[in-house]
Write a structure and sequence with these properties.
Length: 230
């Protein structure tokens, strides 16, 4: 199982100290490498040295979605393009698309963070993970993919759509964990029922990683009941 006991069992005091240490580093790094932060800090009357406690973060300005749009495509990057190994972007349906550039170290941390989430679901090298998030510029599919491989899972990169095939793979490959949006998880369950399959008993899915959109408690309960997952 992917588990980091030095972090997971850290005392509250140690955790707060680590958060402050890393926050100081992050604020200083952003200020040193991104002109946008230098200007926004100056306009707010603060500098990195003013961050002495966790509460001091309230002195610093927010970064708004419009700031990301105004600095399109890479004005907020803190490294040169030669250090960027992957680019993701939003859909741009509500305005200028926003771009995220990832270094190899970013991807490593991303995978480790997701793997820790999978460990909570008791999923490791003995688990099979089906990823029905969309792959592409959206971060969901590839983010979950990196996390699944980091955790040691056998990853099925099926992406979204073709629901009957999704159900066939879930059944034939005895998938342990399903990763997709909540609404698609419910659609998979309902389609399986229409096909004469009881997803709670005929499938082996025991955990769900559902995100990327809002989910009411009622929807959570319905997914849990129909798929038989926590």
């Amino acid at each position: 199982m992917y588990f980091q006991p030095e972090i997971e069992t850290m005392s509250r005091e140690e955790l707060l100290d680590l958060q402050l240490e890393r926050m100081k580093w992050c604020v200083q790094y952003a200020y040193d490498n991104v002109p946008f932060y230098q200007k926004s800090f100056k306009d707010a009357g603060v500098e990195p040295g003013d961050l002495k406690t966790l509460e001091d973060i309230t002195k610093f300005p927010f970064v708004l979605k419009q700031d990301m749009r105004d600095n399109y495509p890479d004005g907020l990057f803190a490294v040169p393009r030669s250090k960027v190994v992957r680019l993701h972007a939003s859909s741009g349906t509500t305005g200028q698309a926003t771009v995220v550039g990832c270094t190899e170290n970013d991807l490593k941390h991303w995978g480790e963070c997701f793997a820790r989430g999978l460990a909570i679901c008791d999923c490791d090298e003995n688990a099979t993970m089906q990823i029905a998030y969309g792959y592409g510029l959206f971060t969901g599919g590839l983010g979950a993919h990196r996390g699944g491989e980091t955790a040691g899972c056998a990853v099925i990169p099926i992406s979204s759509g073709n629901t009957k095939r999704q159900i066939q793979m879930l059944k034939d490959m005895q998938v342990d964990v399903l990763a997709c949006t909540p609404s698609y998880a419910l659609h998979i369950a309902d389609t399986a029922i229409e096909m004469g399959i009881n997803p709670a008993t005929d499938l082996k899915v025991r955990a769900g990683i559902f995100g990327a959109e809002p989910c009411s408690q009622g929807m959570r309960d319905e997914i849990a009941e129909k798929l038989g997952v926590q």
